[in-house]
Write a structure and sequence with these properties.
This protein is 35% helix and 29% strand. The protein is α+β, with helices and mostly antiparallel strands and 80 residues long. The protein has one domain: Phosphoribosylformylglycinamidine synthase subunit PurS (Mth169, Chain: A). The protein has a 3-stranded antiparallel β-sheet with strand order 2-1-3, with helices on one face. The termini are close together.
C-alpha cells in the first residue's frame, strides 16, 4: 500500500521559510500572492494491506519521527 504524509506548520507558528518564498515571489513580479506557508510531503510504500492498520502505523510514525507535533500538523493519505 502506498501512502503520502503532508506535514505543515500549525496555524499561529511563524514560518520564516514561507515568508522568504513569498518575498521572492513578489520580487519576481507575482504580486497577487498572499501569505505563503511551506511544508513537506513524504511518500511511503508499506507492506501492510489493511487500511486501518496502515493508518495506525503511519500515525505512530508521524508522532514519533515524521512530524514535530509541538509545532507541526500532519495529514495521511492512503493510496490502495
Amino acid at each position: 500500500m502506498k501512502a503520502r504524509v503532508f506535514v505543515t506548520l500549525k496555524n499561529g507558528v511563524l514560518d520564516p521559510q514561507g515568508k522568504a518564498i513569498g518575498h521572492a515571489l513578489q520580487g519576481l513580479g507575482f504580486d497577487g500572492v498572499g501569505e505563503v506557508r511551506q511544508g513537506k510531503v513524504i511518500d511511503l510504500e508499506l507492506a501492510e494491506r489493511d487500511a486501518a492498520k496502515a493508518r495506525a502505523c503511519l500515525t505512530e510514525m508521524c508522532e514519533k519521527l515524521l512530524a514535530n507535533t509541538i509545532i507541526e500538523k500532519y495529514e495521511i493519505e492512503l493510496k490502495g
